[in-house]
Amino acid sequence: KILIRFLGCCLFCIFFIFPPCFEDPQLMAVSSAPNVIQAGDGAALTAGQAGVCTLRLVDKFGTEHAAANIRVEEHYYVSNIAIVTPMTSMRIGEKLRFQCIISPNNAEDLDQVRYTVSNENVAVLSGPNELYALSAGRVRVSVSSPRVSRSIFITIFPAASDVLLPDTAMRMPLNSIAEIHCTVVPMNANPMPNVSWTSSDPTVFRVTGVAKNACRITSVGRGTATLTCSLDGCSIRKTMQVTVEKIKGCYVATAVYG
User: Fold this and answer.
1) Which residue, among 162, 164, 154, has the nearest Cα to 92 in the 3D structure?
2) Phi, psi dihedral angles at 250 (to 5 degrees)
3) Would you state the torsion angle of the CA atoms of residues 214, 189, 196, 175, taken in this order, to the nearest 10 degrees?
4) Using one digit for the tens of pLDDT, what is the confidence trace for 187-212?
5) Most buried of 38, 39, 97, 228, CB within 10 angstroms?
6) Are residues 164 and 183 in contact, defined by beta-carbon separation less than 8 angstroms?
């Protein structure tokens, strides 16, 4: 009977007096600096700002079971992008190198920086920071990170492809002056080339004046000679046959052609 009473007392104490001793402790995180790390319910931790704090795991009785110092570091993302280019226009077939300055240079998202061109039928990126012009038009070159984007606009002009004269032949009186005009095609060619004028026979007529896309010739003798109009820096040229003849009663005068 004594043994039965003893066992009964033991069971009573185990189940009714000391049950907390046999439960798993419910631990919670306590932060020494909530502005650095804020401990939430369960195992949720929220980093607030850069710094160092001590994180302690305690039970509901305040007993510490573990502790650790935790450092929170700032994120360094791309904050500024600058695109530097020596020019904002180019010709078809040309390459343009530009400089891209990204800061900070130790940003975490540098590998996410992307270079794009708005119209790859007009220009394409042919290398690092290099643009190649394919056709006339205007494109936007953009450099973008997940948080910052910068763009520049580049205009591609066509190169001169032809030069036009008002006619292939002309007649002019002796001792007279004529002004000949030409047209460079296309009219928006960039850069606009200089035009040179020459006479194949200065004893028939001479080039006595040159202006932008025009020249003045003076007839000095009867005969036929060739006026050549050429664009500097390329092989584009056109010619006109000029025939000088003596016309009775004709005096010095100026005629404009083109």
Assistant:
1) 154
2) -95, 135
3) -20
4) 888 778 899 999 999 999 999 999 88
5) 39
6) yes
Question: Which strands, in side-by-side order, build the sheet including 137-144?
Answer: 89-91, 149-157, 137-144, 114-117
Query: Measured between alpha carbons, how far is 242 from 213 in angstroms, rounded to an integer?
Result: 18
Cβ-based burial of 233 (10 A; exposed 0-12, middle 13-18, buried ≥19): exposed
194: its two tokens: 């200089």
CA 45 to chain centre: 42
| Burial class (CB within 10 angstroms; exposed 0-12, middle 13-18, buried 19+) of 227 | buried
Q: What is the pLDDT of residues 135-169, one digit of tens each?
A: 999 999 999 999 999 999 999 998 888 999 999 99
| CA–CA dist 102, 18 (Å, integer) | 66
pLDDT digits (tens, 9 = 90+) for 87-122: 999 988 899 999 999 999 889 899 999 999 999 999
